[in-house]
Amino acid sequence: MSEMGLPSCGGGPPQCRARFRAAYAASALTVLCLAVKGPLGFTQPMKGGQLESQPRQLVTTRAELTEVGPAELEAAIRSGPVVLDVYAVWCGPCKMLEPTLEKLAEQLSAFEEEGLQVPQVLRMDSDQHSAKATSLGVEGLPTVIFFKGGAEVARLEGAVGLSQLEEEAAAAFGMELAGEESVMQLVTMAELELLVQVEDVLVLGVLGGGKWEQGSASLDATLQLLCRQFGQRVQVAMTDASKVPGVAESLQLGDLPAVVLFQEGSKVMQLEGPDAAAVRVEELEDLLSEAMD
C-alpha cells in the first residue's frame, strides 16, 4: 500500500495500471469527468516523440461579446434571439460572468452549421445606458436576459455558472446545449492519485479562488465543454486547491488556474495562469488527440 492507503505494485506500468483499475472499479468512487484546482509531482518527461512535460505556450482567441446601446439592442431583438448581459465596469460578479458568457457564445455558434438561427450574445453597460437598464427592469448586476420573438422569455441575476446559462438558453430557444457528461469535483488527494494511476490519459483542471477566481471560472467552463465533447474517451478532472491542501504543491504549479495532462501516470503537459484561463476546447482536443495517437 502507498502512504495514502492506495494499492501499490512492483510490476511495470501496464500491470500496475491493471491493479489500480481493479481497485478503482471496486472502490466507492463514481467518476465520470473530474476537475482539479491545485499541484501533483509527476514530472517524468515522455520520450519517443510523445508530449513533453514542460509548460506549453498557446496562442488563444476567444469568442467576443458585442457591446450595444439601446438602438442596437432593439434592432437585434427584432431580428432574432438574443442573450443580453447587463453589467457595470466596477461590478466584480460581472467580470466573473464574462468568460462564462464567452463559452456560451462559442456553444451557440455551433448551431450555425445546423441551419438554425444563432442567438446573439450581447452586453450593455448599465452606467452608460441607465435609462434602458431601468426600462428592462434591471435591479441587480449582472442580469442576463433572454429574448425570443421580440420579447423577454427568461432572465438570470448574479454570476451564474455555465450549466445554468445552458439550461436557460435551452429552455428559451429550444436548443439542446447540455450533454450527458459533466465535470465532477475531486475532493481528496487520494482520489486524485488513484485516477492518475488508473487512467491512460487524464486531464486535470486546477482551479483557485481569490485573485484566480475569474480565470478559474473561464477554465471551469472550458472543461465542462471538453468533458461533453471528449468525455467518452478521456477522463477530465477538477478540484479546488483551496479545499484540497497540498494539491498545487504536489503538481509543482507556479500559477493558477492550470490544466495538467497525464499520460500513463506521468505528467506530460501543463498550462498555467492566463494561458490556462484562455485555452479553447479545440486546443485541448488537439493535445488529447496527439497524446492518444
UniProtKB/TrEMBL annotation:
<keyword id="KW-0249">Electron transport</keyword>
<protein>
    <recommendedName>
        <fullName>Thioredoxin domain-containing protein</fullName>
    </recommendedName>
</protein>
<dbReference type="GO" id="GO:0015035">
    <property type="term" value="F:protein-disulfide reductase activity"/>
</dbReference>
<dbReference type="InterPro" id="IPR036249">
    <property type="entry name" value="Thioredoxin-like_sf"/>
</dbReference>
<dbReference type="InterPro" id="IPR013766">
    <property type="entry name" value="Thioredoxin_domain"/>
</dbReference>
<dbReference type="Pfam" id="PF00085">
    <property type="entry name" value="Thioredoxin"/>
</dbReference>
<keyword id="KW-0813">Transport</keyword>
<feature type="domain" description="Thioredoxin">
    <location>
        <begin position="20"/>
        <end position="174"/>
    </location>
</feature>
<dbReference type="InterPro" id="IPR017937">
    <property type="entry name" value="Thioredoxin_CS"/>
</dbReference>
<dbReference type="GO" id="GO:0005737">
    <property type="term" value="C:cytoplasm"/>
</dbReference>
<keyword id="KW-1015">Disulfide bond</keyword>
